[in-house]
Amino acid sequence: MIAHDKKKLDNEFLIDEADTLYKGGFINKEQKKFIEKELPVLKGQNNILVRIGFFLLGSFLYSSICGMISLLGLNSEDIYLQICFYIFAAIGFAGSELLANQEYHNHGLDDAFILGAISQVGIAIAITTEDYETVIAFFVAVAALFMFLRYLHVLSMLIFCIAVTAFLFFEMFEFGDVGKAILPFVAMVFAGAFYFITKKIIKNLTKSYHYNGLLLANSFCLVLFYFSCNYLVVRELSGELLGTEVKPGTDIPFAFFFYAFTFIVPIIYLVQALRTKDRIMLWLSFLAIGFSFYTIRFYYAVLPIEVALTLGGLALFAIAYFSIKKLKEKENGLTFKPDRINHSDNFLNAEALVIASTFGMKPEIKTVSPMEFGDGGFSGGGSGGSF
């Protein structure tokens, strides 16, 4: 299923591990360069600005090809309009495959064709179905999942997650007001189930090719789970979807649950992140806590904004100060000291990189000696049957 050379994909992970070892001080710069020289990899681009530049160049190339084909189909406007975006999508798929065969991966040029193909699929289905959102979301999700599995394109996984969520929402809208009313709870259950599914898949991975995409999907589930029953989101969507008007002295149904959910879930994220040392969940917990306070202040402004910001800044400063003071001397567990190395589960053979870079990773060379040893000859190397 994967279009790229798996050996070179493995080499990319090994080079990443070598870079981690170099930053941790386990190998020197010469050893790192030697490893990079000895391990051939795919044509990628780590510089985000250069990658954006290649993406713009690839987009120009893609649009030029589509424009040239459009010039040939102008004579039959109605028929061509119905099929042109399918042709454009096919060009995107063909270009993605061609670039993969040319060993482009996360380069920028391949991003343009991959994302272009997904977008053209959505536009083509929209024209055919006359903007039927559920069907559009379904086919976009399928196209994005294919791109991720085939070309290991992480951004396609994000599109897949968004498209699947949109498909769920549009399906619930089909049930009318009842579906809209229970949508927060359905989204919460969906996010929770999807989170544990991706977590289990990550745990059972034997190869790390799909690790980054699955990690992104797992993090997306955490965000969706929190926003699914956040009080502000639920209340505002209730007004938009159901036309619910909250009059003074009243509140939305199950308001107590949504209030509790808004503050309890970020705390659960924080505790779980500290327990499992999950850095992504830790950052998400901080963002969720901040948004929870914003949610309450959006409806109940107890203090002027400048006073609230000042007090909040003082509280955060105090928490940071005392946390640093307590953790700065700890050597293990949760500590303020910088990581010497980021522990990664991608590969467990980091020691092999150190050994290989130390001893040179060169093939064994047999030396031909002019001296013959054994059988009582020169140098006394062994003895034969004669004195």
Automatic annotation (TrEMBL):
Annotated TM spans: 48-73, 79-100, 112-129, 135-152, 157-175, 181-197, 209-234, 254-274, 281-301, 307-324
Alphabetical keyword list: Membrane, Transmembrane, Transmembrane helix
Protein name: DUF4401 domain-containing protein
Protein's organism: Flavobacterium chungbukense
